[in-house]
Amino acid sequence: MSWSWKLARVAGIPIYVHWTFLILIAWLVIAGTLENNNVSQGISEAAFVLALFGCVVLHELGHALTARRFGVKTSDITLLPIGGVARLERMPEKPSQELLVALAGPAVNVVIVALLLIFDVPLPAGVGASQELVHAGFWPKLLMVNVFLAAFNLLPAFPMDGGRVLRALLAMRLPYARATRLAANIGQMMAIGFGLLGLSGQAPILLFIAIFVWIGAEAEAQQVAERAALKGVSIRDAMITEFHTLDADDTLGRAADLLLAGTQQDFPIAVDGDPVLHVLTRADLMSGLSQRGRDGLARDFAPSALPTVESSGSLSESLTLLRSRNTPCLQVVDRGQVVGLLTLENVGELLMVRAALGEPQDGSVEGGETIY
Length: 372
Ligand SMILES: [Zn+2]
What we know:
One of its GO terms (molecular function) is metallopeptidase activity. The chain is α+β, with helices and mostly antiparallel strands. It contains 13 helices and ten strands. Zinc ion binds at residues 59, 63, 105, 153, 161, 371-372.
């Protein structure tokens, strides 16, 4: 993840912290100090948040180390202000294994609660009244927060762990993509319930949770449906092979003519001294035309190189790359030669064709997984 600093490496897994998280800590120190005219108050509030995030790291390690037992590597764990994210290279294939991986995170919080209770940490007085909780001591507060983490993560809705638990249970009986769709719908029903409660003014935060759950559920269902649909499809099947490439000395006028003559919007362009193709997007072309007219050189307005994928690579990973780089297309190479372009639009068309032909679209999925 970009804008993250590596904090440590635990059991071979790098742990990153996102810069927004550091701002949160700094803000807590400053706000706590100003509010109470007392630096130690600010520092103790920040220390509590650090302890809380320590618990979050342990929760993520619970997922990651359980996944490792099933032979699945974790590429990293990142701390964000909203929580932690572990990026698993994939989910284990068997639903029973995904079930254990999902349960392992909340189980860590349950263990922390049990340990705190064993060490005689009292429950904060007036549990549930948030005012009381804010003024409770360090350890009682940590206890309550772990109870909350375990309970919240077990809500049976994506993107929470409980959503995965539900999906895994359903997937023992149903195909994976259908189990995911069903689990996502159940999560969205819950989101509507949260939303209504939030709107009724009981707890406005429920409204944010509702939105978070709704979006998370939809994203998971779509991602799984897409991966299931693309299973067994190679980059070669999905790429465009008929496209125009501009030469290094082509003018903007020629690019404009090609744009008008066909449906291609973004043109790969060979740039002197760079072995990979650059791209002239339609927006670049328009800004070039307004600045230099038809005689301007296209290459002057194609600053960025097109990301490259090998034709033998994984299609789902290429789609992730395509989305994360915010680029219109990828160039597909085979032994150093550009053989095609990959665009989201074309992959969408391929999915439509496959759906229309009724080709099988189910089975387990492959590709990276994020777990909270
Ligand atoms: Zn989790």
